[in-house]
Hints:
- About 30% of the residues lie in helices and about 10% in strands.
- With about 350 residues, the chain is an alpha/beta fold.
- Pfam families: DUF8212, HET.
Amino acid sequence: xxxxxxxxxxxxxxxxxxxxxxxxxxxxxxxxxxxxxxxxxxxxxxxxxxxxxxxxxxxxxxxxxxxxxxxxxxxxxxxxxxxxxxxxxxxxxxxxxxxxxxxxxxxxxxxxxxxxxxxxxxxxxxxxxxxxxxxxxxxxxxxxxxxxxxxxxxxxxxxxxxxxxxxxxxxxxxxxxxxxxxxxxxxxxxxxxxxxxxxxxxxxxxxxxxxxxxxxxxxxxxxxxxxxxxxxxxxxxxxxxxxxxxxxxxxxxxxxxxxxxxxxxxxxxxxxxxxxxxxxxxxxxxxxxxxxxxxxxxxxxxxxxxxxxxxxxxxxxxxxxxxxxxxxxxxxxxxxxxxxxx
Length: 342
């Protein structure tokens, strides 16, 4: 696990410290989940304030850093993490390691603060029903950004915050309305069921309505949902999502990955091939489930004469098409060659 840089909430002055991963942070830490707004305060700027021995309430310190410091203190946590301020993005190696470790860092946090910059706290208590149709909470940009998907899923405890940094509610208590907004099962949000209970296509469908500033982040932000660690190559564009699918196919025996629907992604036309052009192609396939091999053989065995053999049967991909446009997934079965007998 690469080192993570945290900010102190107890020192009156700006102070960074390096830790060898979440487990090395005695007493835990808080972490911020948010949608970037224009230019965020960089690590370089915060480091210069640390060198100048600036206090946390110095007006040069961003409001996000000051409020995170206050909230971490309120929850009895000495350290907190903000992506823009704690990652030196000028260092490509550090940025790459941070991107690959992001899911673990959010999962390892004692608490995550999800800041909603576009949700105001209503002055009239009668208008505070965030579950109401058309509420600002439901319409928040937070639910349309790529990175905030894993930031929503990874932490066990997540508190949503209004624009004024007051508390809106906790993820655990809002699982029902979050399901309506994100289509993510409440059992996933509340950690009653692991991500692995849901097919690859189902998990990718959660990202279908989300966007990112950089096309690569549509792929990199999903690595943690599948336990994938692949090289980060900013500049490769949409190829990143293809690489992600290749890695998923290597790691997880779940071919729902190949059952995407090209009609859902008109912005990224792709030549016929096994992999989807973007997560948008999985929007309509959330109900797909992976069938284990024994069940598959029980149903398909009589058709391919596989159920009558005790030998293992493997599936070889001959051609993959999308669900629509009269193109279908084609699978062939074969028995592996026997070793020569004496």
